[in-house]
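Quick one before lunch.
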Amino acid sequence: MARTDTAHSEGSSAFAQAGEQESKAAALELRNVSKRYPGQREPAISGLSLTVPAGEVCVLVGPSGSGKTTAIRLINRLISISGGDILLGGRSVLRRDARELRREIGYVIQQIGLFPHQTVGENIATVPGLLGWPKERIAARVRELLELIGLEQEMAARYPAQLSGGQRQRVGVARALAADPPLMLMDEPFGAIDPINRARLQDEFLGLQEQVKKTVVLVTHDIDEAIKMGDRIAILRDGGHLAQYDTPREILIHPADEFVAEFVGADRGIKRLSLTTLGELKLAEPNGLLADLRSVGALRAPAQTSVRDALSMILTANGAPLAVVDGEDRVQGLVTLSLIERLLSEEAADGRAPLGETAAGTEATPGSAAAPREVA
Ligand code: ADP
Ligand code: MG
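Model of the adenosine-5'-diphosphate complex:
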């Protein structure tokens, strides 16, 4: 199995056999971008600069009116730019034919915008059709995408009104991916979905992204969604000013200013715990407790559990340690309150070398914790 040493390869094994399909991604760069709408005194965006490396998810987050949708529409040239430049794959989008450019950019919006009088299959086939692909190639691509988004092939003949909100959203993503665009723009794609389905769609999208590795700019006003979905988060404030552009971990540990600190919330310490899984911790050894654990049927959690959820379980159990188990229910080690406390203090002391970073598959930092040990 092919493995790279980027964070993107984490957890991708489930997709390994399907992951051989072609896939393109291009870096996106906004250079000193500004936008002033006609008749408006204040620009909606001014001096916005940021770079999204190829294959990364950048989440644009900020309060309503901070210019998120404006930024997205500038990138695919649905509106005209007032100043600065936008480069996709090193090429200015301003010098491209706008229609041709849009066929290279997948676009997903909250209302999904499926064509109501076209079937699911026809909707997905939109851009390949515009690009003049042969019929057989289009049909094969529609089948492939339906499989990718987990919809049955029979769904191709249905009309959007015959789908649930979540299914429509999946079809919207499939349509955006149809011609294998190097960039995906997603404007509040999960905004109209109920919380339970939203969480599921977010997870599905992350799984899909493991596989297709697109450059993605995803807009949300929900900081929790940003933390969950983003490789990096760009926090915008009024007037389209960039307050901070960083990894979720950095934003939670070192918010750039009061605005960011307030935006991420007073519970940012707890939110941080959701970024680390139990498998990334150096677990406490069960020692003699192991036999006891088996007999009393202690709380167990798989290694993929977030530290945040583990903390919640420990607190619910009045502070009792939690046994971390592998797929065969073998105890790998214990998580205790003091171990979580130590994680927080070590991160606070050096946000760039949190406990367990090596195990997470990201860059090793001198002095960071060793990979987790087999205990059982
Ligand atoms: P967000 O998506 O972050 O909520 P928008 O990009 O939609 O914000 O809007 C940014 C600012 O630009 C807001 O002040 C909004 O009122 C203004 N704006 C958006 N679209 C237009 C337009 N077509 N004409 C004039 N002003 C607009
Ligand atoms: Mg918007």
